[in-house]
Specification:
Chain lengths: 85, 374
Amino acid sequence: MKTLEMDIRGQVCPSSLLLVLREINRHHQELISGQLCIVILTDNRAATGTVPEAVRNMGVDAVVEKVDKYYRITTQQQNVRGKRN
Amino acid sequence: MTVDFSVWVVMVALSLIGLAAGFLMHRSDFCMASAFRDVFLFKSYRLLRALVLLITLSALLFELCRLTGILPAYPFPWFSPPVGVNFFGGMVFGLGMVLAGGCVVGVLYKMGGGSLMALVAFVGLLAGSALYAEFHPWWMALAKQTSFATKAVTLPQWIGVSPIAPIIVLVAVGGFFCWRWLRAGDWIDTNEAEGFIPLWLTVVGLAVLGVLVVFLCGVPMGVTTSYAKGAALVESWLIPGHLATLPYFTAISSYNALPIDGVMRSGGAGATFDIVAIVQLPLILGIIGGSWLSAQLLGEFRIIWKLPIKQVAMVFTGGVIMALGARMSFGCNVWHLWGGLPLLTMQSLLFVAGLFPGAWFGGKVLQQVLVSGK
């Protein structure tokens, strides 16, 4: 699987959401089929709510983890977590 | 210069209120700029709902205080009758706050959390305040030409009724919508940030803090005239001769008595320690400190030095425009939304009506700058 990393730390609000939405629109099929995942590094606390909600509405799941002093949001196929459970 | 003990008491109390407000805002990322911007950009009403709750609760609390005689003055000092340019100022402010990535208070709590971009917006706010001083007399003359309802500050005064009925209507309508959102589960937050405080809880806390500010100061929360003071201070170092020629910085424009001692004090936008500094500076420092504390406790305080230059330019410009909007409308969003609107002051109603088209246009520009061309 390919990974697209987006480092949006320090950027103006709402860069995280706008840039992620743009990339999801560009790579929608690859994301749905699990060929690509997007990793977003952000220090915007609001993005830990807005980004997963927006990507889920577009048929892609997202996982939020706190890493050091920022957050990492990783997209994944919507049924992956269900299969694991 | 000696400072009265009562003034020290008020300033320490305001610092603590600012500290609590900054802490809450950082934990919930309560951004008033996003409240307007997200309606147009993402069709998201989450933060606007929170703002409706804040205005409704504040209106209820302020009116209860007025009825029980606790509120020092009605309407609050420093609000004046409306002028048509309040609407235009609101539009300019709405555009500026979206480009700056936060309003005049959002910039403070984001700065306290370590955002260098917010510091850029803050510098823009100082620059915009200095720019306004250059055309203040002309703007005041224009404002005078667009004045109406010259004796009424609030809507109830304009229509000639007691405030209680219009405020009951405001609280009933706001309360009805908040209840409907509760039934629909719209107050449930999905935010996964560590230490996140639900937005509704932060808003309840902020409404109470807003009333405490009025108890202590006699006026609601405001910060932007102190940004002008900051600009005046810089000009007093760099171009003192020019500063002395600017009426905006040299005039005494505000009078207020702190409820604690009843002593009438004066103030203005100049670089002096006066009543404006007494009621605003502790809040500014408190909000930055509260947000810093929250970020430190979470281990999230970190300054990112590498910033996209295009964004830096946009944020600085946004800060300048936001300061111009605040001065052109005789108050910022915090002053009008948190202080004026709960009292139905007509200045604030016009300002808020202007915020929407301003935020809409700001969203269009923001989208172009952030996502085009890559």
